[in-house]
Write a structure and sequence with these properties.
Length: 246
């Protein structure tokens, strides 16, 4: 598994065709779900914040939010949106989730839209320990990933779409030994071609629960979607929460 695939993957094309196209109503639903779990007006770390969709809405509702990402392009867009919103209790930092050094600073840590699982198992576990360390006593960790069971039952080997005279093709391959999906994405246009590789470790609900337990989180709960539905094998996502008790 290539540890550095993220350095090239999250660029202007990803921003234009994947981040900027996210549904605003879905973002509001996600934030409403989060607010029902987070301490009111608490201090929140948004890991893999992207363009700040969730961070800014949480800040508007009184939370003190620090969003981190490794893409300066995304953070520039986040800061533009933040300036337009005129919200003051939110900041964005260029920071790799593998290098967190926060100690008991946050009432909540969130990692949404499969921002977890980018690396090998040891690194992913170290990231979880960093999240745990960043939490205050009784702080909550909320992670949203795709459900391995659902993906494998409904596996899509290839997708194709056209936007702005660009053809976007994705081909996927699943490794049953590592539980990693390798995606080869192609952008093809007139006199233009660019392609990317992405490696995502997908998890079952049982694996995520065991990881949360292994880093010391308790009161673990799991949901199937942002409406708070009960998790099942048919759930597209795993939304898992756990609390820190020293």
């Amino acid at each position: 598994m290539n540890q550095d695939w993220t350095e090239e993957y999250f660029d202007e094309l990803y921003l234009k065709y994947f981040l900027s196209t996210q549904n605003e109503e879905l973002t509001k639903l996600q934030v409403k779900f989060l607010e029902n779990l987070l301490k009111p007006e608490g201090k929140i770390l948004d890991s893999g914040c992207g363009i700040g969709r969730h961070s800014i809405l949480l800040a508007k509702d009184g939370f003190k939010v620090t969003g981190i990402d490794t893409s300066q392009i995304f953070l520039d867009e986040a800061n533009r949106s933040l300036k337009e919103s005129k919200v003051e209790n939110c900041e964005f930092k260029l920071l790799d989730m593998r290098k967190l050094d926060f100690k008991g600073e946050f009432d909540g840590v969130i990692s949404l839209w499969f921002s977890f699982g980018y690396f090998n198992d040891d690194t992913n576990f170290a990231i979880l320990k960093g999240f745990h360390s960043a939490l205050k006593e009784k702080g909550i960790l909320i992670i949203d990933v795709e459900n391995r069971d659902y993906i494998l039952k409904n596996f899509v080997y290839e997708t194709f779409k056209e936007k702005d005279n660009l053809f976007i093709l994705e081909r996927r391959k699943f490794d049953p030994i590592t539980s990693i999906i390798k995606t080869h994405r192609y952008f093809v246009g007139e006199s233009f071609r660019k392609d990317y590789l992405r490696y995502i470790r997908i998890y079952s609900a049982t694996e995520m629960i065991n990881l949360f337990k292994a880093v010391g989180l308790k009161n673990i709960a799991i949901f199937g979607d942002y409406a708070g539905e009960e998790f099942s094998i048919l759930s597209k996502r795993i939304i898992i929460t756990g609390k820190k008790f020293d």
